[in-house]
Structures are given as C-alpha cells and as structure tokens.
Amino acid sequence: MSSRTTTDPLDLIDLASQLSESERAIAASVRGFGEQRVLPDIAEWYERGELPEARQLAKELGALGVLGMHLEGYGCAGASAVDYGLACLELEAIDSGLRSLVSVQGSLAMFAIWRFGSEEQKNEWLPRMAAGEAIGCFGLTEPDHGSDPAGMTTRARRDGSDWVLNGAKMWITNAPIADVAVVWANAGEADGGIRGFVVPTDTPGFSAPEIKHKLSLRASVTGEIVLSDVRLPDSAVLPEVRGLKGPLSCLSEARYGIVWGAMGAARSALESAVDYAKQRRQFDRPIAGFQLTQAKLADMALAVWTGTLLALHLGRRKDEVGLRPEQVSIGKLNNVSAAIEVCRTARTILGANGISLEYPVMRHANNLESVLTYEGTPEMHTLVIGQALTGESAFR
C-alpha cells in the first residue's frame, strides 16, 4: 500500500492512500474516459431520454477494458473486485445509466455465461461481449414478479430435443439493443425448475420493445422481453446451474458494483455542492461561509467517505474470501440510501439551480431512485440483514 498523502479537500481522510498505484491508475483512466467522452453530452441525452451512442460506447468501453473486467479468460481482463468497484464508482459519477450498461453487460449477462455456461457458450459470446462487439441483457424480472422471482410465469417446455420459451420480462436494461439475452424460465420440477437460457435476440419469437416515458435512468436503454414460442436447441441451456441459485448469484455480482457506483453519484453531487457554495454569494459573502451550509457539506462528506470505505472493505473481502449475501445487502442498502440523501442535500445548497440539468445533482438523485429498488428493494435487503442477525426468515 502507498503511504501517499493527499491535499484533496474532498478526501480529508486520505482514502486514496488505501489504494495501490495500479488501483488509482484504473480509477483515473475510467474517470478520464467518462469526463471526456460522456460528460459533455450526458445532460442532453438524459433530457432526450435516450442513449444514442450505446453501441459505439460499448465498443469504447470494451477497448477500455471494463466490460466483464473482473472475469478471467475469454478476452476478459481478470481484474480484482476492487478494480471493478473503482470503475463502477467512476462510471456512476458520470451517470447511473453508464454504469448500468457496464454492470448488466459484465456482472449479469457475461457473469451468467462465464459462471454457468458451457465452453461452447463461453467461446461464442464472451470474447465479443468483452470487446463490446456484442451486447447482452439479463431477463429475470417480470411484470408481476420482481422481488419474488420464484413466482415467475415465464415457462420453458421441452419439445423433442428443443426447448420452447413463452413469457415476458420487464425493466430489462440493454434489451432493445442486445445481441444476446440470458433468460430465466421455469422448466418445471421434472426438468430442474428455474433454468437459464442463452438466447440470441434474432431468434424468431423474441422481441424487446423499448420502454419510454421514464423519469429516472433516462440515459439508459430499457425494454421488455417478449417470448412467443421461442424455439431453442438444448445447447442454449446454461448447463451448470438449476434453481434460483443461478440468477441470485448473478444479482449479487451486480449489487456489489452498485455499492461502489452509488458513491460515485454521491461524490459528484458533493463536488458540485462544494464548488457552488464557494461561488454563490448571498448577504455579501459566499454561502460556503455560513454555518448551516458547512454542516450540510460536512454531513454529505461523511456519508461519501464512510460509504466508500465500506465499499473498499467489501471489495477487499471479496478478493480475499468472497462475500456473503448479507454483506452485499449491507453495502447496497447503506450506500444507495446515503447517496440519495447526499443528492437531496446538495440540491438544497444549489437552490433553484439544483433542478437544472446544467448541474448533475437532480439527474443523480432521479437515477438513484431506480438504483434504490432495482436488483433488490430496500425492504428485501433489510430482511436479508434481519435474517442474518436473527436466524429467522421474514420473507413469507
């Protein structure tokens, strides 16, 4: 570990000193990409409710090495969990939609194939996905089944040597532009219950209409997945997993990235509030000199520092021994909730300017409202923690 100190007023606890030189370099590289390539346009994309360059961005993110970066082999970087977390932090400091694109690609679609797929599936998809030449999505959530995936109504039935899928998935990031979808369906007890399928999106019967009129994650491509007699060969099944263990383990991977990403959004809001408070003058002085403003900034900074330290701790544990589900739940529940409060407080410091897209604060706050409930609502993570504390399940 480096003993370097920092003069950054937003890092009064010298958190950067807990990172290696290579970790700082990765963070700086991703931050530079985001600030130069995406930040100049992200407010306009958000206002228009689209991510018009998603496919080109995926290729550039692939060249940067962040797609599936924590996976090994098949064109993936084999980076550490901390490296991946730092990348998520810097991506979400630009916009949650950018981090979601990377997270769904790497931690959901690619991870599912990497962890549970056949060698044929891995070789067919992972190198192209790591390069951003193929985009993936992850079909689990349904219109009537979010927090209770065991109740899914999407069905897979055998027909000779084939499988036929019918059903629908909802709120699926990347779906309208995806080349491949990892779809989870109930195959019935005789065929293993919940099974995962690698579905090329050009398969007849597969469609992914885009969801419009979002007020959050607007700079992100979101859609449905509609499966109408989608016929697949037996080779499309993920062979190494049966049951909910498959999709839930993928969600744990993605939730880990959120633990870091939320702190990126919070840091961006804090930076904006500090800069604004120094420049904005009222009563003949900068508002940064008022006690109530300083109290707000101090509380925001505490939330960012403690949340990032929690993310770093979980990242180190993940690299050393792995993480238990309740540990991931602690991170997501704490950090997303804290980040929302940071953004809301920053908005009060910016006053009316806080609602303008000229500043990132309201955009981050709106995005985090989606991050709060996707990949596990606060209620679900609270109950995961409660069960770990008491040994009693309160889910049903």
Quick tags:
single chain, 396 residues, alpha+beta, Butyryl-Coa Dehydrogenase, subunit A, domain 1, Butyryl-CoA Dehydrogenase, subunit A, domain 2, Butyryl-CoA Dehydrogenase, subunit A, domain 3, 3 domains, three-stranded mixed sheet, 14% strand
Characterization of the model:
This protein has helices at residues 21-48, 54-64, 81-94, 96-116, 119-130, 245-279, 291-320, 325-350, 361-373, 378-390, and strands at residues 72-73, 76-77, 136-139, 155-159, 162-173, 180-186, 194-200, 206-207, 222-233, 281-282, 285-286. The strands form 4 sheets. A 4-stranded antiparallel beta sheet has the order 4-5-9-8, with helices on one face. The chain starts with 20 loop residues before the first helix and ends in a 6-residue tail after the last helix. A hairpin with a 2-residue loop joins strand 10 and strand 11 (285-286). It has 396 residues and is of the alpha+beta class. The protein has 10 helices and 11 strands. Keywords: FAD, Flavoprotein, Oxidoreductase, Transit peptide. It holds the Pfam family Acyl-CoA_dh_M. Belongs to the acyl-CoA dehydrogenase family. It is an enzyme of class 1 (oxidoreductase).
CATH top level assignment of the largest domain: Mainly Alpha
State the separation between the terminal residues, measured CA to CA: 46 Å
How many E-type strands?
A: 11
Kindly estimate the percentage of residues that lie in beta strands according to DSSP. 5-15%
Largest sheet: 4 strands, antiparallel
Query: What is the CATH superfamily classification of the largest domain?
Result: Butyryl-CoA Dehydrogenase, subunit A, domain 3
Which structural class do the helices and strands define? Answer: alpha+beta
* CATH fold type of the largest domain: Butyryl-CoA Dehydrogenase, subunit A, domain 3
Shape annotation = globular
What order do the SSEs take from the amino end to the carboxyl end, as H and E? Answer: HHEEHHHEEEEEEEHEEHHHH
In helices, the fraction of residues equals 40-55%
- Runs in which pLDDT lies below 50 for 5 or more consecutive residues are none
Radius of gyration: 21 Å
In spatial order, strands of the major sheet run 4-5-9-8
The pLDDT mean sits at 94
Q: How many domains?
A: 3
**Total of helices:** 10
The name of the CATH architecture of the largest domain is: Up-down Bundle
